[in-house]
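Narrative summary of target 7.
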Amino acid sequence: YSLPHYGNLAYAGIVGFLHVLEEVARVNDMGHALCRNLCEGWWQADYTVNRLKNKNIELGFFLDEVFSSLRAVPNYTRPKVFDVIIRSVYSSCLRHITKLIPGMRDPVRGVDLVNNSWFVEQLMLTSVQLMGKVGDTGVPVSPDVKGSVGSMAAGLPHFSHGFMRCWGRDTFIALPGLLIATSRFDDARDLVVGFARTLRYGLIPNLLSERGHRPRYNCRDAVWWWCRSVRLLYEHRPCILQESVHRLFYRDDNPVNPHRPFVCTVLDVITEVLERHAAGIEFREENAGRALDEHLLDAGFNMSAGVDPETGFIRGGSKHNCGTWMDKVGSSYEAGNKGIPATPRDGSAIELVAMGYQTLSWLVELFESGIGATSEVAIKTGSSNSVVTYREWAKRIKDSFEEKFWSDDGYYKDTVGSESGGDGKLRPNQTFAMVIAPELFKEAHMSVALRTIGTKLAGLVGMSTLSPSDEDYEPHYNTADHGANYRTAHGFNYHQGPEWVWCMGFYLRAKLLEFLKEKGRRTEEGGSEAADRIGEEIAQFYATVLTFHRAMISSDPYRGLTELTNGGGEHCAGSCPTQAWSSACMLEFLVEYEQGFLHR
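Modeled conformation, tokenized:
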């Protein structure tokens, strides 16, 4: 709805009006543009009714009767009447949604998250705003599934529809929070199986595009976030491993064939991911060239991934492309950064190493419990292969991790073996690894690193993507910067200082691990009284940190957590107002805090 003298509302639905009505109510502003518009006519009511009736939604016919019976009220009372109706409808919808989403009142957990935290409720509602069926932008549907399944928008409004809606990486970073924490296990299953259908080269797509029929395989990390999501879903739905996967690509060089797929299981797909990485992955992107990516240099279309045979680390990429979430490629001729990846993170990225280790350790557990047909793989070593068990591979990673990643500067290196010079960078990605595979870290080193991160990277609502002491640090992101500064032109500094909100969720979870260990020590030394004191300290710490997140989700018209802020928590005009992984990772933390600390 376009409100004269105000602008377009964020949403077409009830929440679009609700946000503005709350603005009016805060100061009783009867001169507000919304009030004037209502006094002049019933256009807002007609818009709401017709939009729903056109979709044959029963609520639209009900509201038509309600508004029709009130059209004779005096003009000056219309804002109040409209406010009462919209708020009543919203409250009813909210109660209904609460019944539909088991995680909002989950008897299995024994924790009533809604009553304990309004903030948690709002975060759970973002799974409604971001997950849905939108035209042809869903995931590939198996032949045995009737109709379509939903897809998850990376954020709104930037990624609401079209080929930019559904990102592999974003989907599986966000899935544990938005779908597993809310107990939307069927939706989680649809996404896991749908993306498994698109496996090619041992990877899942960065962008699906047209239900997986024209996917783009230009990221190394999405498949590992997918593996993590499968493991977390398995804890609630063990049958996920035996789900049938009707593959779209029989071989890497075959075109998509949705009508004659070969069939395997989700567990088979995980096994193939490990086998393909162990054997080494090298390919050139299909349809490489300016039509596919107008900014990337030719060498950037050459993709690679594999395993370091000595350390067991997952590795890949080059200085010519970006294979992880820090994926900004320069686009400014004037500043000289066009075609240059700002943050290649080639070599072994710390969170990919952790996810590889976690996947291997999990498969060892499964195999020893009688699940899975194999527990070994051939790793490419020079011109030959060496066969190792999953357990041996995982041990190589663990034995090498501290030696290779720990920095005497008091943090863990972002990458190892990078040809682009990124190894020594202080970034928040190490906190992902701490949460995903804490057993890789020495406890003393992890505590030191968390202090360093808290001092240098932690912002008001997000985590700085680069240490302020780094020469490349530029905390203000602006895609409209058409200047000649190499480091900032066209937003080249996207991941070189701006503070990303989703990273805060992992940092808080890493801190929770540290707090829980401290609670255990204090309990042993001073009994329950000492443990209660650490509990109070922790609660105060988190309450202070989350103050700004609560304010953001309550005041923003999109009712979500933003993608990023500029340095110091300053608003960033180029940020997506509600981002899937921002809400999801914060929700994962809050659920874990409530279960892992308050009830432990």
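The first helix runs from residue 14 to 27.
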